[in-house]
Amino acid sequence: MKRNLGNIVIIAVVVLTILIWIIFPPVREGVQNYERYYAGEMLGSLMIVLMSCSLFISTRPKWAERYFGGLDRMYMTHRRTSTSAFLLMFVHVLTVPITIMNLRLGNYLGMIAFLGLVAIVLPTLSPRIPFLSKLAGKDYEDWKKLHRFVGIFFIFGYVHSITVNAPTAKVAINWTTIFVYIGIASYLYTEVLGRFLKKHVPYTVEAVKHPNSSTTEVTLRPKKGPIRHRHPGQFMFIRFPGMDKKLNESHPFTISSAPHEDVLRLTIKASGDFTRHLFENLKEGTQAIIDGAYGMFDYKLGGEKQIWLAGGIGVTPFLSFLRDLKDEMKHDVDFYYTVRHREEAVFVDEIEAAAAKNPRLRAHVRASSTDGSLSIEEIIKNAGGNVSDRHVYMCGPFPMMQAFEQKFIEAGVPQANIHYEEFNFR
Ligand SMILES: Cc1cc2nc3c(=O)[nH]c(=O)nc-3n(C[C@H](O)[C@H](O)[C@H](O)COP(=O)(O)OP(=O)(O)OC[C@H]3O[C@@H](n4cnc5c(N)ncnc54)[C@H](O)[C@@H]3O)c2cc1C
Q: 363-391, pLDDT tens digit by residue?
């Protein structure tokens, strides 16, 4: 319940907004097309409320993680509130009566807000819509830069709402204004104030290793105090300020070391511009700035019998789980680590050594090109014929997690017992 409170509050706020518009409708006297104005205003107000929630989540408030189940879950909510606001914007435009004659400043501002948000949000949706993906390109940094303007168009949208000729609805507009302030304050915090107020912790790169031809292991030592690393499986944002501009981009990575270690270790797969550049150029002695730790992907909160499923570089939180083990494991775990080709599997010796030491941990390392793909039947067989009492922890490519989630549910695992970490915020 607590892990869902954030989403429940957002739904409650949306419902309350609708109720306020119903209980305190706009003034009707002398208004032509009253119903269309009324519906359009309510939709616009809902849009502001949802966008304000999205902007608030973008501030990455650590204290709110527990009410959503971690920052990665908060970004999922961010995606949903933004998408809903985006769709409402279209319905709003189609609902309000617009005439080409008598256009006012408010109408022009509304058009600017509409076009600006369309230009920003379409590429955001693109990874999920193949056609748009081709159109928008895949460069995350370009997308991130564009995304920064959301707040500006949010403000345009708000000014549009108070300058356009719409029927007065005092109570509902006052209610909406609260969210305008929350949205603007969140935006200013994310883009300006957060840089000064957020704790960004300096580290130094102590070692850089390449366990295979596409992976970098980075060891980082705190220059002063360490970040607050509460439990294994958390992640952080890192950038390397200095001469190399590319390395100064902030990217999220799981901390693959354990919280008790006095260094942080990251295991990074060269999969795009930044990570490839890092593979080739990161050197010992480079300065790093870290924001974190975030996330609540924590197997210790799950039941006694567990299944861990890692796909490719999704092994990193599980490495952290294993490195955190000081005594005997307190859970029965079947750990599946799947890669395409055997040489992609990193730290297999370490995983197998942990399994040899802990009879309750059974490691199954699998290369699909030679061993075939992992199937749910095999997982059920290894679990003794029934997985309905298992807690499942997954991290890997999204399609893999989606497919397995469905299969686990069909095999009787309650949805609430399936936990996953998505390596994607977009
Ligand atoms: C919670 C979390 C934990 C992660 N842990 C690891 C890990 O332990 N090891 C590892 O190799 N990878 C990890 N990743 C993925 C890693 O952040 C991306 O692979 C990396 O940022 C890709 O950047 P790129 O420029 O090399 O690739 P690109 O081709 O530019 O990006 C590939 C995809 O990665 C995502 N991405 C890119 N840049 C960012 C960014 N600045 N912020 C958020 N997402 C971005 C986008 O979805 C993008 O489509 C993690 C991601 C998340 C969200």
A: 999 888 888 889 999 999 999 999 999 99
Closest Cα to atom 27 of ligand 1: 272
Residue nearest to atom 10 of ligand 1 (CA): 268
- Measured between alpha carbons, how far is 232 from 293 in angstroms, rounded to an integer? 10
E-strand spans in 213-304?
215-222, 235-239, 251-254, 264-269, 287-294
| Rounded distance from Cα 391 to ligand 1 centre (Å) | 26
User: Torsion angle of alpha carbons 149, 197, 75, 179, nearest 10°?
Assistant: -70
Q: Is 253 in the pocket of ligand 1 (CB under 6 A)?
A: yes
Could you tell me the distance, in angstroms and rounded to a whole number, from the CA of residue 268 to the centre of ligand 1? 9
pTM of the predicted protein model: 0.86
Residue nearest to atom 42 of ligand 1 (CA): 251
354 C-alpha to ligand 1 centroid (Å): 28
DSSP states of 330-382: SSEEEEEEEESSGGG--SHHHHHHHHHH-TTEEEEEEEHHHH----HHHHHHH
Our answer on whether the CB atom of 44 is closer than 6 Å to any ligand 1 atom is: no
- Nearest ligand 1 atom to the CA of 256 is 8
Containing H/E element for 209? strand 201-212
- Residue 166 confidence class, pLDDT cut points 50, 70, 90: confident
Strand order in the sheet with 287-294: 251-254, 235-239, 287-294, 201-212, 215-222, 264-269
Cβ(143) to ligand 1 under 6 A?
no
Is residue 72 lining ligand 1, measured as CB closer than 6 Å? yes
Residue 370: predicted pLDDT: 87
252 neighbors 236 (Cβ within 8 angstroms): yes
Distance (Å, rounded) from C-alpha 387 to C-alpha 307? Answer: 9
Sheet of strand 332-339, all strands in order from the earlier edge strand to the far edge? 361-367, 332-339, 305-311, 391-395, 418-421
Per-residue pLDDT tens for 340-359?
888 888 888 999 999 999 99
- Give the pLDDT confidence score for residue 132 in this predicted structure: 56
Burial 288-298 (b: 16+ CB within 10 A, else e): bebbbbbbbbb
Contact 207, 266 (CB under 8 A): no
H or E element at residue 127: none
